[in-house]
Each structure stands twice: as structure tokens, then as C-alpha cells.
């Protein structure tokens, strides 16, 4: 069967947002405690979500004890994703009180992010929890806000594949009938999750929307990659100019524009090395003309 991938954030939201039983079980696994009476506050999909790559398809959830949770699948972790996670958590926490209400009424807010990207490549663990803690004393300042990060690429380092968090991770990265059948044989919840995903995978409209979402995510990834390369080129060009300026080498406006507008990282590296010893900016840039 051609299964939809739960690592697609649209599929993830439909899978858990439309089934409280699956959502409760996944939250129990991540939080390590019983979770009951979950209520999804934003089950609807934004009107232009499929092609608007910057829309985050998260789940805003209220638990039976009043705890707030934001749950999402993040395919690509960008340099600002950490800031966004913290911002979303703080904003959700602040939404609990109206002006003049007692702070004692606040309930914890939890951000749970599954990601198909390696956020901390040197940390070989699937699941980690972050909160406010003293640097020297180790004392927990507050448990009102916590962030759970689950790096799916780190599943390979889990020693117990039947651990409930690892089992959900295996489900989220599964792609074949064999993998889903094995999971379904391990627990009734996994059987239910498989049936739910099968239903979504067989729905033509869901497949179309999921495909559009994947295409939008790919376009964003390409766009970010291009922006990153452009930023690297700009940084190296400024390094070239910095070396030349430090050596009091005279540059014309045209020479400065040429260096700053160069998109070729290899050429910029060559100029940077040459800028250390060159006796003439004209000769330095002429090397590009002779080899280009």
C-alpha cells in the first residue's frame, strides 16, 4: 500500500487531531503520566495551509487537568525554530489569564515537537525535555513551561524499541506494510493508528493536500538553502574586503561591488587567500578573469 507519511505535518495533524484516543496515548508516552479528557482547540485547517509553507500546522490541546500543550511535527528545523518554540509556548501560557486574574490559576504549558531533522547531532537520544533550571544550583525555577524535543533520526540509538515513545517514533517513520503490520501486532493502539492512517491514505482529497504540502515544504527548503548560500557568499565577500581594508589596499567602488556581488564561494575563498599577500586589487581580481 502507498502509505501517507506521518512526518508530513498535515498528515500528523489529521492523524492525531481527529482521534483523541491516539492523541492521548502519544501524550502519555511523551509526558510519562496518565492523560485524560484531551480537547483539541484548533482541529480546523487554515484555508491556505497546503501551499503556504510558513503556516505551522500544530495542535493546541487542553488536558483534563487544565495543562496546555502545543504538539507539532517539524520536518525542517531552521535556525529560528528554537525561538519560535519558546515564543509559542510563552504565548499559549499567557493566554490562560485575563487582566487581574490570580497567577495561582496558571496551569503548566508544554510544547512537544517531533522533528525529522537532527537538531542536536551530538546528542544521541530520541527524547529530551527542557525547562528553566539554575545553572549553578541545578534547582528547577519553574515547571510551568517545558519543551519536549523528539529527534526521529535518533531512534537508531534507542535500546528498547518497545518503549512507548520509541514505538510511536517507529510508527511515525514507518513506510512499508511490513513495518506497520509489525507495529499493529504489538499493541491495540498501534493497530488503531494503522487503521486511521490507512483511512487517510485512501482518501483522494487528503492525498492531494498532503502532496501539495510536501511540495510547499520542499520549495521552502530550497528557498532557505538559497538564502543560506547567499548569506555565506555575502559573509565571505565582506571578509575579503576586511582583509584588503586592513592592509590599506585602495579599492574603487566598482571593485567593491564586484566582490560583494560575487555568488561563487570558491572564487571568494581564492580572493580571500590572495588578499593576504596581493600587492594590487586589480591583479587579485584579474586572477578570476584568467581562470574564468
Essential attributes:
6 strands, single chain, alpha/beta, elongated, 292 residues
Question: What this model shows, in words?
Answer:
- It is a single chain.
- With 292 residues, the protein is α/β, with parallel strands linked by helices.
- The chain folds into 2 domains: 194 residues, no CATH class; 64 residues.
- Strands 1-2-3-4-6-5 form a 6-stranded mixed β-sheet, sandwiched between helices.
- Strand 2 and strand 3 form a beta hairpin.
Question: What would you say about this model in short?
Answer:
The chain is 49% helix and 13% strand. The chain has helices at residues 9-17, 20-31, 81-94, 164-173, 177-186, 188-201, 204-246, 253-260, 265-275, 281-291, and strands at residues 39-40, 59-62, 68-74, 109-115, 127-133, 140-151.
Rg over C-alpha atoms, rounded to the nearest angstrom: 25 Å
Q: Overall pLDDT, averaged?
A: 87
Strand order of the largest sheet: 1-2-3-4-6-5
Give the H and E element order: HHEEEHEEEHHHHHHH
Low-confidence stretches: none
Please give the structural blueprint.
Blueprint: H1 9-17, H2 20-31, E1 39-40, E2 59-62, E3 68-74, H3 81-94, E4 109-115, E5 127-133, E6 140-151, H4 164-173, H5 177-186, H6 188-201, H7 204-246, H8 253-260, H9 265-275, H10 281-291
Parallel strand pairs: 3-4, 4-6
Antiparallel strand pairs: 1-2, 2-3, 5-6
Helix pairs in contact: 5-6, 7-9, 9-10
